Amino acid sequence: MEAWSRFLDTFFNWDVMERYFPAIMKGVVVTIEIAAAIVITGTLLGLALAIVRTFRLLVMNALIVIFVDMFRALPPLVLVLLVYFGLPNIGINLPSFAVLWLVLALVLAAFAEEIFWAGILSIPKGQWEAARSTGLSFLGTLAYVVLPQAIRLTVPPLTNRTIAITKNTALGTVIGVGEILNQATTAQSFSGNATPLMMGAIAYVILFIPVVVLGRFLETRFAWRRI
Amino acid sequence: MEAIIQQFFNLSIMERALPLILSGLKQTIVICLIVIPLGLAGGLAFAIISLSRLRTVRWAAVAGIDFFRAIPPLVLLIFVYAGLPFAGFRPSPMMAVAIAFLLNTSSYYGEIYRAGIESVGQGQWDAARSTGLQGYQTLAYVVLPQAVRNVLPDLVSNTVEVVKLTSIASVVALPELLYSADMARSVTFNSSPIVLAAAIYLVMLWPIVRLISRLERRVAA
Amino acid sequence: MTTDAPPILEIRGLRKTFHDVEVLRGINLVVLPQQLVFVIGPSGSGKSTLLRCCNRLEEASAGSIRVDGVDITSRSTDINAMRRQIGMVFQSFNLYPHMTALRNVTLALVKVLGKPRAEAERIGMAALDRVGLADKARSYPGQLSGGQQQRVAIARALALEPKVMLFDEPTSALDPELVGSVLNVMRELKRGGMTMLVVSHEMRFARDAADRVIFMDHGVIVEEGPPQQMFSVPSEARTRAFIAEFAR
Question: What is the DSSP string of B34-86?
Fold first, then answer.
């Protein structure tokens, strides 16, 4: 019992929880805001890049492939540090949350582009041919026939990838963004108690488990058989 | 333009930082050699447990997988490194990294294995069991080989993620690639060492990323 | 059948090369209004390619194709406008799986011809009615049999009121019991005066409904003539051999 109450006191100290709950909540808000910004801009940018790729312009495609490969191969933390420390030295001063949002949005865009592209490619050529045979233009075919089908295919891998990348908002700690982990470690230093860290972990779990479950649900629901 | 090259592509600084960065690379490789096999094994264990006939055990395995997939790896790492000491367990940076990564990668690999096993049709189990093979034998000789083949692209893809993940070990001062590069940066006030580290990551991972893209497209089609 | 009116489809010296293989080696073909021209031949003879050149799904390597007097192979032609005049029915139907049968038919009416939704649906329902599937308007392709899907595909092409319809092996992907329903629709179209160019193996249908039969082999037209002559007393040895194969 002695060990149990010590455990509770270390990780679930009620006073500490009360005192630092507002701070953690502030972190939650910041995390949600940045995550939402990343998801929206990253997904849209990825979709835009995939659409540009359908035009098959050689130079454009080469650039897109290079961008996508780089941002998929490099660890996000490397990119964050590079942008955060490097840009001020060439005159560009971005606040930390902007750096975090920019880097993670570009990373998501890179993964999203590949996912959308794979989806578009998997639409049978017959669909393009049928639509074009009725006089529908290239863009019309893309908009009404190909993309609606392709996007349905991309939901499972896209949700998985989105979850992974938004969890990287925790990296914001390293450059001082006031998200959950930052608030938790600061509170831990002040209080000399590990409870804030536990609160931070629980906050993440509460935020993300529903998203993970939603992702799994979407995966099964969208595993429809194509004609 | 000149300023950009100075700040990011300063060759003389890169040259000076190279020995430090190479030792960091060595450390990164060591981490990978420890964490990846552990994660693959742990994930397999998770997946097999999730097949149990007992509903509570199955539920526990799935809950474990979901839990450790929901927590950002950095949070887990900091918790192990900075939180556990309060409970009396004081891990070294390497130990903390090993524990946190084991939990995290096992859950991701576990989910992949699970999907793979599920993708092998019930017919395979039926056929094997009706020839008298026991459950674990069916798993080992019939189902798992097919499951792994089905999800190989995902396993490779996740392994790439693990290699990239080693960079967060820098936050707990483990002298791997990014940590060494960042150290060089703070000493020289120049970002070129980080660019060098980025180049090394690219050399290691770009070919595999290209390969994965191709595999992904074939699977989707 | 009018023989003095200008041809709907006029192909001269059509050539097509794929990766060093010459698939079409100088095709000359004329289709008059309201004619049903049937193209037969072994696989690899270039029949499908010929058809696909007619609405520029394949670009001709040489030669010219005129639809109702307009040279469609010229670079300045508006492909999308031209394709409205040429209906195409594919072997694999290619219906849009995420849309109902009616929407499949009306999509081009709304987006290409700019018709208001209500009018498009009226035209679409009429087209579906012509192929006998008005009651399936709200069904999805996944809920329809192969024969029904192909008939919806025909309605989709029909709704645009094309000058000529191209059929690329329309029944080859169908179970035997379903072939009849599609052929009946095609007979109905012929009776209604549609000009049709059909690539198919359905010899009996050709004998009954075609005005002219063309035998292709290795990228050239070997022989052509009325079905009675082609199927009973063809002049070329190759034609004889091919017909004999299929007469079994």
Answer: HHHHHHHHHHHHHHHHTT-SSHHHHHHHHHHHHHHHHS-HHHHHHIIIIIGGG
The average confidence (pLDDT) of chain B is 87
Question: Which residue intervals of C192-226 are DSSP H helices?
Answer: 203-209
Closest CB to C80 among A129, A135, A227: A135
Please report the residues numbered 132 through 171 in chain A whose beta carbons come closer than 8 angstroms to any beta carbon of chain B. Answer: 153, 163-164, 167-171
The Cα C24–Cα C18 span in angstroms is: 9
* Spatial CB neighbours of B179, under 8 Å, sequence gap ≥ 6: B24, B169, B170, B173
Question: Above 60 in pLDDT, residue C24?
Answer: yes
Give the E-state strand segments of C32-124 in sequence order: 36-40, 62-67, 70-71, 86-89
pLDDT at B221: 45
Between the alpha carbon of residue C92 and those of residues A97, A130, C97, C141, the distances in Å are 52, 10, 13, 12
Q: What are C58-104's pLDDT values in tens digits?
A: 889 999 999 988 888 887 888 888 888 899 999 988 888 888 999 99
Q: Which amino acid is at C71?
A: D
Instruction: Count Cα neighbours of B50 within 13 Å in the Cβ-side half-sphere.
Output: 24
Comparing A91 with C209, the larger pLDDT belongs to: C209
- C198 or B54, higher pLDDT: C198
CA distance B68 to A219: 19
CB neighbourhood size of A17 (10 A): 17
Find out whether C224 and C50 touch, Cβ atoms under 8 Å: no
Q: Which long-range CB contacts under 8 A does C239-245 form with residues at least 24 apart? A: C239/C215, C242/C40, C242/C41, C242/C42, C242/C215, C242/C217, C243/C203
Stated pTM of the model = 0.80
Which residue of C92, C98, C157 is in closest CB contact with A148? C98
Q: What single letter denotes the amino acid at residue C231?
A: F
Q: What percent of chain B has pLDDT over 90?
A: 42
Q: Return d(Cα B39, Cα A145) in angstroms, integer.
A: 42
> Running DSSP on this structure, what letter comes out for residue C44?
T
Q: How far apart are CA C223 and CA C29, in angstroms?
A: 11
Q: How far is CA A84 from the centre of its chain?
A: 19
Q: Is C90 helix (H, G, I), strand (E, B) or coil?
A: coil
Token pair 């191969």 in the structure block, residue:
A73
Q: Is residue A122 within 8 angstroms of chain C, CB to CB?
A: no
C91-118 confidence digits (pLDDT tens): 988 888 888 999 999 988 888 888 899 9
Interface test with chain C among A122, A133, A225, by most C beta carbons within 10 Å: A133
Strands C195-199 and C36-40: parallel
**Which among C11, C6, C7 is positioned nearest to C220, based on CA atoms?**
C11
Amino acid occupying residue A196: P
CB contact under 8 A, B202 and A7: no
Q: Terminus-to-terminus CA distance in chain B, angstroms?
A: 43
Q: Is the pLDDT reported for residue B147 higher than 90?
A: no
Are the C-beta atoms of residues B75 and A170 closer than 8 Å to each other?
Answer: yes
